[in-house]
Amino acid sequence: MTDDLQARIAALSPDKRAVLERRLAEMAAERGPVADGRIKPRDRSVPAPLSFAQLREWTTGRIRGSNNISGALRLVGALDLSLLSKVLTEIVERHEALRSTVELRGRTPVQVVQPVTPVPTPLVDLSDLPAEEQSAEIRRRADAELVRPFAPDEAQRLRIQLLRLAPDTHVALFTTDHAASDAWSMAILVREFVTLYGIHLSGGTGGLPLPEIQFGDFAALQAEEFTDERIAAELDYWKKALDGAPTRLALPVDRPYPARPTFAGAQYHIDLSPELSEDLKTFGERENVSLFMVLLAALSVLLHRYSGQDDLVIGSAISGRNRVETEQLIGCFANLLPLRMRLSEDQTLRELVHAARDTTTAGYDHQDLPFERLLEQLGIGREAAQTPLIQVMINVLTAPASTLELPGLTISPEPMDIGPVSIDLTLFAMPRGETVSLQWQYSTELFDTETVELLASQFVNVLRQLVTKPDTAVGDVEFIVAPVAAVTAPAPGAARGPGFVELFQRRAALAPHTTAVVHDGTALSYAELNRRANRLAHELRRRGVGPEVGVGILLDRSPRLPVAILAVLKAGGYYVPLDPSYPAERLSFMLTDAGVRVLITEGEPATQGTRWPVEILRMDSLPDGPDHDLPTLPDPASLAYMVYTSGSTGRPKGAEIEHRSLVTFAREVVERFGLGSGDRFLQFASPSFDVLVEELFPIWLAGGAVVIPAEPMLGGGADLAELLERERVTVMELPTAYWHEWTRSLRRQDRRLPDWLRLVIIGGERVLPDRITMWEPLGVPLMHVYGLTETTVSSTFFRLDPPDQKRDWPNLPIGTPLPSADLRILDSRLRPVPVGGCGDLYIGGISLARGYHGRPGLTAQRFVADPDPAHPGERLYRTGDVVRQRPDGNLEFVSRADTQIKIRGFRVEPAEIEAALSLHPEISESVVDVHEPEPGDKRLVAYVVPHGSPAPAAATLREFLARELPPYMVPATFVPLDALPLTPNGKIDRAALPAPTAERPAEPEDAVTPQNPVEQSLAKIVAGVIGVESIGPHDNFFELGGDSILAIQVVAQAQDIGIRISPLDLFEHPTVASLAAVTTAAPAIDAEQGVVSGPSPLAAPQRWFCGADFTDPHHWNVSTLLELRETYPPEMLREAVQQLLVHHDGLRQRFQLNGVQTRVRIALPQGRTPFTAHDLSGLDADEQERRITELTAEAAAGLKLSVGPLIRFEFFQLGDGRPDRLAVIAHHLVADVTSLRIVVEDLRTALLALAAGQTVALPAKTTSWQSWARRLASHAGTQPVQSQRPYWTDLVEEASGVLPSDTAAADDPGPGTVADAREVVARLGSAETTELLQAVPAAHNCRIDDLLLTALGRTLSEWTGRPRTVVDLRRHTREKVFGDIDLARTVGWLDTVHPFALVSEPGSTPATTLKSVKETLRAVPEGGLGWQLLRQGNDPLPDSPAELVFAYTGQLDEPSPATDGFTVLGPAGPAASPLARRLYALDVRAAVNGGRLTVTWEYNHRLHHRETVERLAERFLAELRALAADGDATHTPSDFPLARVDRSQLDGLLNRLQSGRETP
């Protein structure tokens, strides 16, 4: 019985209680007679089944690895540890669930009761820590206990850890297996603990009465009672109750659902006032409803307004203890109850509360059906990211007593951080005396704290209205709303103030010689710009241009463009910008529709002809005329310009902007951008795009200059960056899609931006979070803008300074509005939505356009009357965009409310493209949609139904549309369909439209393929970027769907592999064959020879390490101890070490540890040199060895990640003719085994030079660590890496890595700590090693690691009894992934670790296993690099199941000319802290040392006996000897790559050759 029900029953009058009893009797009669209502003891000769809830939690634990619940108590006073153990043991004895394991009998899990054993009470003394450190350690240990799994065979499903804070103060951490208990059980556990402890403490002999039954009895009865008929009846109710219910709630989340949630959560507390709490109680009594029902109704109203949904499913956790005997029983009973609430706007709050009562009561009547079974029957599957059906829950709890007093001991709850949160949002209500305490528990992966605080305050507001005004309609409930921003009303007379023309003329008079326009190195002053514009304006006046007269401007980007625009404004007319790249038909329509009288152009325009009633005015043949200012100025209410946008009717529409809107906008943008006379603003936008207004007018009001490029900006990083450098641009605005590619290009090229670039403005599409991360190191602020042509360019602005760019921005806000912009977020009834809720964006204010030229109907449709009575007669523009206001006041774009889309910053109405397609004689019908193959890469797709068959070719349709539409509106892909898919109500079913296939257009039979390597490489790149399987050398890039944004990607990828092309090359040579003819393919190795420093991204292994939460992370090293055959002065060694640090940037890395957000910096080679000399010559030999061991151990543990350097050189002078020694110790974050060899080689080179009195000249650098890390970061999201996902997923999910163990290791299951490690070393003889290294690989055409892995696979197969075992393979090879990257001499953590499946079938020969290993190893993509990259990010691959890691490190003491002065003695100091956890049960390392193969087997002595590991080591050597004895040559398909044969084909061919059935 729930607390809520108990409270309600207690509050009933005798009459109402009688009614309740009668109703319960009727329900019992409906359910049929029961011989005996009480639960009887089960048959103990067979194991008990699992209860439904227990099975659910046991399964969850198997999937997650652990599934526990926990609690904590603070005990102050004298604590008897032996009594504590005794009491807990007694509780375990009383409740079998706490000592029952789950075992599989066949395929069925059952619970098996284990004998009672004493409950250990381990004590950890924290009394020597300061108070704040104690608190942190309590939380850390509690978190660790919560996720530490119970071993399957561990008898006790309860454990306790006691933390001593002071002699009389302890904290007890209780943890139980969720399959054995639930939250109710934890309350029983604490209650019984306090009671029994008190009884025994006072010397009492009695105890608690024994439970009548055990949990297994309940589970057995549940299995017996839940017959198929009973389940069918319950299912029938729930299917009807939930028929048509939504499976998702549209919650006001701050971030999208993660692909792989971590279930991180937090909580927010708020207490209702005593007055409101009393009102709740009174209202409940009056309406005969419980507190739960009132809260459920209020929560429904809140979710209704925030989601816009009137059909909601809200969950509630029930105890599942609906029998008296189970109320005090520990076990897993809990269940989830989905409660469906339906609301209507005219329903009163009182009626809604009654509906909540009916829903709750009916749900409780059918509470026994397990929630999982319900989901299964409803066909609702689980997803990793979201809980199905229920995303919001509400529960009413009984608040626990704050303090419990025993003789000499005070016990109180210890507040703890919440554990994993699997429900998005949960409301807990706890009556506490005169108040009700509310606790909101939420997923921090979805919600910010501010959002939850806002929801909580809105909830209290709704609750107050519910109890004080219950007859209020749901639709009339008032919510806390706030204006999007404080709208600054235009100052009185603003419309009559100086307009832009007057302000510009004042600027020209005040600073006539200041530069206004820069083009191709030539500057145009304000005075000259004003004179040229005046001359043209006089001519326009002469031709009849004045107020409300349109002038078309058809000019490319040049100084003539701003002259023409200014001239039209001065003449009093309005300009209509036209893009010369548009088709003639479209330009013709726009000129006619706009009522243009004069067309300003240059040269011979393609649009010239008698079709248009316009005068042509060529600027290159302008007659002389006056150049003074005109006597009159434009009226503020007259039109300034008209810009055409895509139209849903099939024709573009012209938005009319007035002078007052223009000047107000320009003034406010100057303020928002902080523009000044020293700024240079890049003119990037198309001449017909309204962003041109933002690029010209504000910078002129500020007295700065606009920079107009000499050529169109087609390219990526280099082109634009060079322009910024050359023209000293300070501010620029880019379409978001272009900025995405430019940012990636800058990252690839490791390009920096000039210091004077102080602001980059982006807008038009959603910003990709990874591009913000890429941008951050550049140190340039971003401004994210949002706006529409109809509201004068931009309305909202969000500035992102470099420090803020480090934050996670899954949806970058669009910001806050300009003072003159009146923004409203309204719902479907035109009411303001609650703060934080989603709604349609409407914009009003002086920035509003007059309307659409010549379209009164469309104007009335989109420019609507302001519904706010405070603004009579005003208008609002309905944007069609759905937005939400964040708690900080910034807006976020959520989605479009219609089909309009944005492509590269341009608004596109699909209906306009569809209308154009309908004019094609062979097209019956069509629909246009957007396809996004990867985030940010939006492409138009046209689905066409032809009149007959076949459909017109894509090239034909593209050419047809190009006559009518601008290039950005021509679809990239055309998909022919037999018919368009329709919904049941006859509308186009866009969700059913097929995704475009990766097929190229049909090609002629004599089509040729790319011929040379350059053509082949370019064809592969172009096909990948466009999204087709392959292309021919003569296929046109743009006819296949390419555009300027995709061209940037092609160029960047080509440059990555050393093919030097520019974007302009691709535009001029759009086929692979022609492009290859003008390019070169000489890879230029990225190898900076100067000093490298600055920020660096985390490489994949570094990211793994930083996120792994290691104990003593500063101690995780690689090292070597060298014996020096020659004598070197300490100062010479110090100088040599300093030279190494200058040369290798990887050794100068510093780390500010913060999980995966760790910051990495490569320091300059300055400061202290990490070299220390120790004179041990005064000690005897034994004492010297002991001291060397001590000093190397100190050095190994003394590396400081944030301070550095992370490498140490410890020099030991031994004297008395003994060779000196040098220990080289590096943290693994900056070096691996191969790197250490490079360091030693370079050390020897430097010493030889210094000894000879020469300048140190180390070998030329290869790619720097910084460049490699940056390339790796950009490579992670590419298609070649992402395409490996199925390979790795199949590998880790289809094979087991579990190894047998010798002991249960209950105290410390798993690999254990470094202190638990022991070693077994096995060696081959010198002759055997030589044969293994030389003869055997030659005979089998394989490598030494193939042989070692074969022996390991056969050893593991025999040990595990399985043919297939996954191990992790640590590889020290440096695979060549990029053509311009050379890692041969790069120092850093470059080894890779990846899972690898070893297969050795029973009865197979060593040669057969070798073939399998060899082919599998050759098939590993990119040498395993992809595994490490795919293990990071928002959708990481599953963990490797491997419990063994294998590494072959080669010939450690192999002599080389570079190291012949050193002898390797072994490692220097311990590699890791003894407290650090080991990663594998077995760590197998093979190396050749002293001419002998040495194999070290490191194991946890708690898991494996030494004898077991010795047998494995001997078996491994025996398998190697068997391979050496097999003299038959072994060949596999990878030996013959050109033949393209598989294993069976090759075996067949070899068999035929050997048998003579096939001759050469």
Explained architecture:
The chain is an alpha+beta fold and 1560 residues long. Among the domains are: 3-25 and 226-476, Nonribosomal peptide synthetase, condensation domain (Chloramphenicol Acetyltransferase, 2-Layer Sandwich); 48-220, Chloramphenicol acetyltransferase-like domain (Chloramphenicol Acetyltransferase, 2-Layer Sandwich), CATH 3.30.559.10; 909-992, ANL, C-terminal domain (GMP Synthetase, Chain A, domain 3, 2-Layer Sandwich), CATH 3.30.300; 1013-1077, Orthogonal Bundle (Non-ribosomal Peptide Synthetase Peptidyl Carrier Protein, Chain A), CATH 1.10.1200.10; 1094-1272, Chloramphenicol Acetyltransferase (2-Layer Sandwich), CATH 3.30.559; 1276-1297 and 1318-1452 and 1479-1529, Chloramphenicol Acetyltransferase, CATH 3.30.559.30; 1531-1560, no CATH class. The protein is globular. It starts with a helix and ends in a 5-residue tail after the last helix.
Fold blueprint:
Blueprint: H1 3-10, H2 14-30, E1 48-49, H3 52-64, E2 68-77, H4 81-94, E3 100-105, E4 108-113, E5 123-125, H5 131-147, E6 158-166, E7 169-177, H6 183-201, H7 215-225, H8 228-241, E8 265-271, H9 274-287, H10 291-307, E9 311-318, E10 335-342, H11 349-365, H12 371-378, E11 392-396, E12 404-406, E13 409-413, E14 425-432, E15 435-443, H13 449-468, H14 500-510, E16 515-519, E17 522-525, H15 526-542, E18 550-554, H16 560-571, E19 574-578, H17 584-594, E20 596-601, E21 615-618, E22 639-645, E23 653-658, H18 659-673, E24 680-682, H19 691-701, E25 705-708, H20 717-727, E26 731-735, H21 736-749, E27 759-763, H22 769-775, E28 782-786, E29 796-800, E30 816-817, E31 821-826, E32 838-845, E33 851-852, H23 856-862, E34 863-865, E35 875-885, E36 891-896, E37 901-903, E38 906-908, H24 910-918, E39 923-931, E40 939-946, H25 954-962, E41 973-976, H26 1013-1026, H27 1044-1056, H28 1063-1068, H29 1072-1077, E42 1094-1096, H30 1100-1106, E43 1117-1124, H31 1130-1143, E44 1149-1152, E45 1159-1162, E46 1171-1175, H32 1181-1196, E47 1207-1213, E48 1221-1227, ...
Parallel strand pairs: 5-6, 11-14, 16-25, 18-19, 18-20, 20-21, 24-25, 26-27, 27-28, 40-41, 46-47, 50-52, 52-54
Antiparallel strand pairs: 1-4, 2-7, 2-13, 3-4, 6-7, 8-15, 9-10, 12-13, 14-15, 16-17, 22-23, 23-33, 28-29, 29-30, 31-32, 32-35, 34-35, 35-36, 37-38, 39-40, 42-45, 43-48, 43-53, 44-45, 47-48, 49-55, 50-51, 54-55
Helix pairs in contact: 4-6, 9-13, 10-11, 10-13, 14-15, 15-16, 18-19, 20-21, 21-27, 26-27, 31-33, 37-41, 38-39, 38-41
